[in-house]
Amino acid sequence: MTHEIHIQSYFSLPTDLAGQMRDWPEFVAGEKFSVQLRNGQTGEVVEVSLIETKDDRPYVSVRSPNPGSLFDRVLGKVVYALSEHSDYLIVDRVS
Question: pTM of this prediction?
Answer without folding.
Answer: 0.93
